[in-house]
Amino acid sequence: MLMQMPQSDGLTIGEAARAIGVSPDTLRRWERAGRLTTIRDSANRRRVPRSEVERLSQRPDRARPGDSLSARNRFPGVVRSVEVDGVMALVEIEAGPHRVIAAITRDAVDDLGLAPGVPATATVKATSVMVERGA
Question: Which end of the chain is more exposed for a tag (fewer CB within 10 A), N or C?
Fold first, then answer.
């Protein structure tokens, strides 16, 4: 349902997406699916009421603040090799100038249909890895 409201009564799609922790495209899909109600301002621009932002911010499946990943943590590319050994596998993804090798379960390889030549995205959650020698 669309209603006309003053600009100050709602957030832009981008502002609402940042506040909720999802992408603007996700909000547009939710609107089309009827999961999100938007309003229109006097210039007929789509706005998200603050009440909707508050409602969606309390979803239990929503990422907590700080859990969202930035674009620099995602490496879209192509699977170059998959080495399965027992219940684990090493998957090598060529992502532009980067090569990312991930240890994942054999089940994940099967579920995702990973094989050489298949497009895949490596998502890195850590900013650094430290290795220490035990005493």
Answer: C
